[in-house]
Specification:
The complex is a heterotrimer.
Chain A: E1 2-7, H1 10-26, E2 30-34, E3 38-44, E4 52-59, E5 66-70, E6 79-83, H2 85-93, E7 100-107, E8 111-119, E9 127-134, E10 136-137, E11 156-159, H3 163-176, E12 179-184, E13 190-195, E14 199-205, E15 232-237, H4 238-247, E16 255-267, E17 270-282, E18 292-301
Antiparallel strand pairs in A: 1-5, 1-7, 2-3, 2-6, 3-4, 4-18, 6-10, 7-8, 8-9, 11-16, 12-13, 12-15, 13-14, 16-17, 17-18
Helix pairs in contact in A: 1-2, 1-4, 3-4
Chain B: E1 2-6, H1 8-21, E2 26-32, E3 35-41, E4 47-53, E5 60-62, E6 75-78, H2 79-85, H3 89-95, E7 96-104, E8 109-116, E9 121-126, E10 129-130, E11 145-150, H4 151-158, E12 167-172, E13 178-182, E14 195-200, E15 207-209, E16 215-219, H5 220-233, E17 236-241, E18 248-254, E19 257-263, H6 269-273, H7 331-339
Antiparallel strand pairs in B: 1-5, 1-7, 2-3, 2-6, 3-4, 4-19, 6-10, 7-8, 8-9, 11-15, 11-17, 12-13, 12-16, 13-14, 17-18, 18-19
Chain C: E1 16-20, H1 24-31, E2 38-44, E3 47-54, E4 58-65, E5 71-74, E6 79-84, H2 85-92, E7 106-111, E8 118-124, E9 127-133, E10 151-158, H3 160-167, E11 175-180, E12 187-193, E13 196-202, E14 209-214, E15 218-223, H4 224-227, H5 231-236, E16 239-245, E17 250-257, E18 263-270
Antiparallel strand pairs in C: 1-5, 1-7, 2-3, 2-6, 3-4, 4-18, 7-8, 8-9, 10-14, 10-16, 11-12, 11-15, 12-13, 16-17, 17-18
The chains are: A alpha+beta, B alpha+beta, C mainly beta.
């Protein structure tokens, strides 16, 4: 098992740390899956009710100048590691003006993901900082626990409003209530609602737009033929939603287009999950082949 | 004692108090003929700091006449109270034009008066306690190793460590390279802590006079406090150290100001060689092996199936517990030492044997007590 | 639609309707008196007074004159209700408390009368929030009977000069002692804490002093915990008037200028803590 990667480009480094920060805010520990082309940060919260799961997929070619990996065996050319994303986030935090960042798998006192940072200094030679992040190597028999989530059967899929506004609304609502109701329809309307003995508050967003999904996809069946006006609703833990919104570093300077989509998944009228999909595209950098897209799927299941 | 501080020096004094407040809960004030000395020691007596402001620092400095039998007056005040006067450094700079400190033992008065913008005066009458001299016994001359660097270089080095980190290990590698590494305490769960190590090249320092292979482990919090002061004052910082277990002395030199920070160091060299990143064959820590580009360096053999039990925990390093009694059976000191609630994990550090030094040159240290470093300054 | 997002037309039967193109003008004043969650609102044709009290010793009033609102109508001689101030503030700032230049939250507020909730309609950038806040039975308010004919000493200061002093008050002191005198020390704030005592002296000829009318030397003590909340009003204000009457009652009036240059007032009344004998001084 071998892994070694290198980032030179500062924009790529910055973007990569933002993704890692996002993951770190959502999960205490997560799984890092490495394949020849991609990196994945995966969190599958096994809590039955109200759990959060994260699936974050990155194309290595969009971030790394070098990327070499060798999995357990030729036919299973993958590596699964368990790590504390906060450690990786911390290591990258002080690397923002680095000349080079190298990330590799090492075996020190324990298996480690070693982040070696070359920093500019006032003298002729660079400063070198290394961070040995302990990792757990996940045996192959457990790999099945980290399957890619299937595209869920959803009733309504809608683009989310400007994140700053939504975050502010959800923050205030969190002061007033523990759970929030999200309602959305196929006419681009979404409502956020709370209701307690003291107060009821509803915020109405309109003209948000619904993403055009490929119509031949059979899992879209629930959305097909649905009354455009009728609202699908989900009741979720407001803290979990805020954690997601607050965790995102809303800094659109580098990102050309960010889009957030919420998918309300219902089953027998009753909604069981809200999936929030975050897509971001970096400004195409000269060395990049295409647009660099990062997709983060966050699923918040509703408490029953 | 009566002194007047004006202009930017008020802020310098304020910053010094901020720095001292990282050390201890009490501030010791001592007017001497060489200037006003402010000192602090931490509760486990493993850290001591002193700031001596020379008479030139002041617009006016009157030490006052010795009240009785050549004995000069010294006192201590609650750090919190003194700090609150200088709490906001920006407003100190913006509004305070002049600061007057008045110590009148006969009248039981310690007054700090700030003359501010718009003719406003703030007068603080502080409660104080008369006390013995607070003195750490140390000597920079007995330290075999010394390093000097601009404060900024060291400040930029410590940002890589989390604010919660308690101890850091400084080691001298080959070729004058200096490394800083977070000290990982007797790990209960090996492989849970991230190890961060930073290497600085010799030419980042103004002076490197260290023996390769030497290393010391000391508390980061107090060091950070001094760095903040040194960085703001744009002063180079010198680190003097000897063998592990012997105190390390951090000094700043300025024509108007002498600053000493004395920190106990971990006494067990075993713990250093056991530390995770240095488990290579080499005795000396080798810098930058993680940065080598050769393919071999990243090839490690790890069987996914094999790694489940986890490796056997390394034997926890042990440290000799040394809790020397106070140098004198001076009741007040003793009481105080007992009153200190649960001194944090610094037990493994040797206490810095302060004692209350009553008479200069007198039998100030009990013969049974090990003197780790002699006081070299004639004044003391 | 189950719930109309449109504010009701003026013709409907509301005893109080008000609209404001920048909700922050209201929320910042309310924040200046937010030290207890319950507030009593009292509206007349002149505007709204929001009163908050603590420990029968402290009363704070925020006055929002009718002119501050773009539309303000009270159908009865006076309208009074009690409301949870924390909830009201969260609702008023639903789109964020620090608005960017060029954006502001428009507000329309309606109250149908006793037993009905206070309705808020807020709009920013095309997004609408509707809030229904339940109201409660108003309670009787304290009457401090502070009348200007009984005022002994009065000082008007630029707030800047007091802000730092209040921010740095030694909270280990139980009281804040205020001395006002035609002679030295003119105006003195003192605390007596664990650390010792501290005195802050303002000369009468200081540039901070806008007016100085002291007739006799008066030294009174006030519970520092009661005065601390007034720091919020101080932070917003440009001038503060400090008055004491023959009984030693303290009145602090804060003049607050909003972003549009309109002036509002917040006032705090506080009972003295104890009689100070000459020996204490």
């Amino acid at each position: 098992m071998r892994f070694r990667a290198k980032i030179v480009d500062l924009a790529c480094l910055n973007h990569f740390s933002r993704v890692v920060n996002t993951v770190a805010r959502l999960a205490k520990t997560c799984t890092l899956r490495l394949t020849a082309d991609k990196l994945y940060f995966i969190l599958s919260d096994k809590v039955a009710n109200g759990g959060v799961s994260v699936w974050c997929e990155l194309c290595q070619g969009n971030f790394f100048d070098e990327f070499q990996m060798e999995g357990v065996a030729a036919e299973h050319n993958e590596i699964y590691l368990e790590l504390v994303p906060e450690n990786l986030s911390r290591a990258l935090k002080t690397a923002q003006n680095a000349k080079t960042v190298k990330i590799k798998l090492t075996n020190k006192h324990c298996p480690c993901l070693t982040v070696a940072v070359e920093l500019p200094s006032l003298s002729s030679s660079s400063r070198i900082v290394t961070h040995d992040i302990p990792v757990g190597v996940i045996p192959r028999r457990l790999w099945n626990d980290f399957r890619e989530p299937g595209v869920p059967d959803f009733d309504v899929s809608i683009y989310l409003p400007v994140l700053k506004t939504m975050k502010s609304v959800v923050e205030r609502m969190k002061n007033l209530s523990n759970c929030i109701v999200i309602e959305a329809n196929l006419s681009g309307e979404m409502n956020l609602k709370i209701e307690t003995d003291l107060v009821s508050v509803t915020t109405h967003f309109k003209d948000l737009g619904n993403p055009p999904w490929a119509s031949d996809d059979e899992c879209q069946s629930s959305a097909q033929g649905r009354d455009l006006e009728s609202m699908a609703e989900a009741r979720i833990d407001i803290k979990k939603l805020l954690q997601l919104l607050a965790g995102q570093q809303v800094n659109p300077t580098k990102a050309l287009c960010n889009s957030w989509t919420a998918q309300l998944c219902c089953m027998n009228v009753k909604c069981f999950a809200v999936q929030i999909i975050y897509r971001t595209c970096l400004e195409p950098l000269s060395r990049m082949k295409g647009a660099s897209q990062v997709v983060v799927y966050v699923t918040i299941r509703t408490g029953v | 004692m009566r002194c007047v501080i004006t202009g930017g020096n008020v802020k310098v004094l304020g910053k010094a108090v901020h720095s001292l407040s990282r050390i201890g809960d009490e501030l010791y004030l001592e007017p001497t003929e060489n200037g006003l000395s402010l000192r602090a020691v931490n509760s486990s007596r493993s850290a001591f700091a002193s700031f001596l402001f020379v008479p030139l620092f002041f617009q006016l400095y009157e030490r006052g006449s010795p009240p009785r039998a050549g004995q000069h007056f010294r006192c201590k005040v609650l750090m919190k109270s003194f700090l609150s006067i200088f709490r906001s450094l920006p407003s100190l700079e913006k509004t305070v034009g002049k600061c007057l400190i008045l110590l009148k033992p006969q009248a039981s008065r310690l007054v700090v008066q700030l003359h501010c913008k718009y003719g406003v005066t703030k007068t603080h009458n502080l409660a104080f306690q008369e006390c013995e001299r607070l003195q750490a016994v140390f000597s920079t001359r007995q330290c075999a190793n010394s390093l000097c660097a601009p404060a900024r270089v060291l400040a930029e080095a410590v940002v890589h460590f989390p604010a919660t980190l308690s101890e850091v290990t400084l080691s001298a590698g080959p070729g004058g390279k200096i490394s800083l590494r977070n000290y990982v305490e007797d790990e209960k769960e090996p492989g849970r802590t991230m190890v961060t190590e930073l290497w600085l090249a010799e030419d980042e320092f103004q002076e490197v006079a260290v023996a390769p292979g030497t290393c010391i482990t000391f508390c980061l919090k107090e060091f950070r406090g001094l760095l903040t002061f040194a960085e703001a004052s744009n002063l180079p910082l010198t680190i003097h150290y000897d063998a592990p277990g012997r105190p390390a002395v951090f000094t700043l030199d300025d024509p108007l100001l002498e600053v000493h920070l004395v920190l106990a160091t971990l006494s067990d060299p075993e713990s250093i060689s056991q530390s995770p990143t240095a488990n290579g064959a080499s005795e000396l820590p080798t810098p930058a092996d993680d940065f080598a580009d050769d393919l071999e360096s990243y090839m490690i053999a790890m069987e996914t199936s094999a790694y489940e039990g986890g490796s056997g925990a390394p034997p926890s390093p042990t440290f000799p517990l040394r809790t020397p009694g106070p140098a004198h059976s001076e009741p007040e000191e003793e009481e105080e030492e007992e009153a200190v609630p649960g001194t944090p994990p610094h037990k493994k550090f040797r206490s810095l044997f302060f004692g209350s030094v009553l008479t200069p040159g007198g039998p100030c240290l009990a013969p049974t007590q090990e003197v780790l470093a002699e006081d070299s300054d004639g004044e003391y | 639609m189950p719930l109309s997002t449109q504010p009701p037309a003026s013709g409907e039967r509301y005893v109080l309707t008000a609209s404001l193109d920048n909700a922050r003008h209201l929320s910042s004043l309310l924040r200046a008196v937010h030290f207890q969650d319950h507030a009593t609102c009292f509206a007349t044709a002149n505007g709204i007074k929001v009163t908050v009290e603590d420990a029968k010793c402290l009363q704070a009033n925020a006055f929002i004159q009718a002119e501050i609102f773009q539309e303000f109508a009270v159908q009865e001689e006076s309208v009074m209700f009690r409301i949870n101030l924390a909830v009201l503030l969260d609702c008023l700032t639903i789109f964020g408390s620090s608005s960017l230049p060029g954006t502001s939250t428009a507000l329309r507020m309606c109250y149908r009368g006793y037993g009905y909730p206070l309705m808020l309609f807020l709009e920013e950038g095309g997004v609408v929030t509707v809030c229904k806040i339940n109201t409660q039975e108003p309670e009787e308010l304290l009457d401090f009977d502070f009348c200007s004919t009984n005022v002994v000493n009065k000082i008007i200061l630029q707030s800047e000069g007091l802000r730092e002093a209040f921010a740095e008050l030694d909270m280990t002191s139980e009281v804040l002692q205020i001395t006002m005198s035609p002679n030295k020390p003119y105006f003195r704030l003192s605390t007596f804490g664990n650390a010792g005592s501290a005195h802050l002296d303002y000369p009468r000829d200081s540039d901070l002093m806008e007016a100085f009318h002291c007739n006799q030397t008066q030294t009174n003590r006030y519970k520092i915990s009661l005065l601390k909340p007034s720091t919020k009003a101080l932070a917003l204000s440009c001038k503060v008037s400090i008055r004491t009457d023959t009984r030693g009652f303290l009145s602090l009036q804060y003049m607050i200028r909003n972003e549009d240059g309109q002036i509002c007032f917040v006032e705090y009344y506080c009972c003295p803590d104890e009689d100070v004998t000459e020996a204490d001084l």
